[in-house]
Fold this sequence. Notes:
The protein is an alpha/beta fold. It is built from 12 helices and 18 strands.
Amino acid sequence: MSRLVMKFGGTSVADLERIRRVARLVNAEVAAGHKVAVVVSAMAGKTNELVAWTDGAGAAAQGLSSSDDEYDVVVASGEQVTAGLLAMTLRNMGLRARSWMGWQIPIIADDAHGRSRIEEIAPEKLGGAIDGGEVAVVAGFQGVTRDGRLATLGRGGSDTSAVAVAAALQAERCDIYTDVDGVYTTDPRIEARAKKLAKVSYEEMLEMASLGAKVLQTRSVELAMAYHVPVRVLSSFIEPGESPGQGTIVCDEEEIVEKRIVSGVAYSRDEAKISLFGLPDHPGVSSEIFGALADANVNVDMIVQSHSRAVDTANMEFTVGKRDAGRAMEIVRQVQAKVGFEDAVVDEDVAKVSVIGVGMRSHAGVAKTMFGALAEKGVNIQVISTSEIKISVLIDAAYTELAVRALHAAYGLDKL
């Protein structure tokens, strides 16, 4: 009998009827002989409600420490409710089940409240419970610091919880149930001819997740790749046995027989471009700017620098998340007096579109196809960035859907 971890997101447990369907899916795996741990998210919309309550409570008064730790206490309660309800439902069906909070396992996390990272999991208690025939229902998204305080893992953290639990239990697989039935070549809402992939490599999935695909949280893919945990993405909106062999397997590249040059097209509208004009063109300027942004935990993505018309000056453009745009501009303005550039402008009406595929390593002409397809549709490219297995371009947000469809067709992804 092998160990299996199943994870259900917020839409999968949005109400009692959906929780009953989840219970039927869990029961089917138990009946098939698996030792099961289930990781659950809060009911859809619940975390947003809880966050709004914390906003309403207000920040700590001047002179007192931040309330980030108490924020975690509030927002972690959503997963606790779901875990208890699913355990009760499973018992109602005749299964032995109990809920597990992060501190009971324990899942040890650092003290960066609201965005903690898992440091270690002691699997003995949890492993012993499921080996003894009990279904363990784990509240996702939460851990406990070494000094005993609740800590949450950031949005999408239940995916990370599930993969971490699977790694600690040395599970055969981690099944992540969502509101889609697998990983597609692009967003089916934009391109109706998008195809579901049977398998996708960890590296490709990591790029897709970081570049805008919402199927899996980035850190969960990093963990799966580091510990070689096979992850299956599948739909929770089915009944047991309805669709055998469904979903997409995220696995090592070596396990994929048919290598594709490009596996998918991803996009993100959560981008802002900051342009700096008249920068002094000498060493140390970039370090001042990006050092200040890094100190403020502002993540910078695409960067391009070019000479300006004035002698010994340059222009620079870089992107940040749209949420960070205001803070990034404040920091840039603070650095302006020290660095001495002429002006800074922010543009939030941009989008990043990317093509991803491990086949890029060994095939020439991928960039040519991309730029040709966009030029044919009249889409202007503002910034370009590349890695070994992806090419990303920044474009006007109005052309996002057109660009996605053009690239999907250019690489023949609709014919997979």
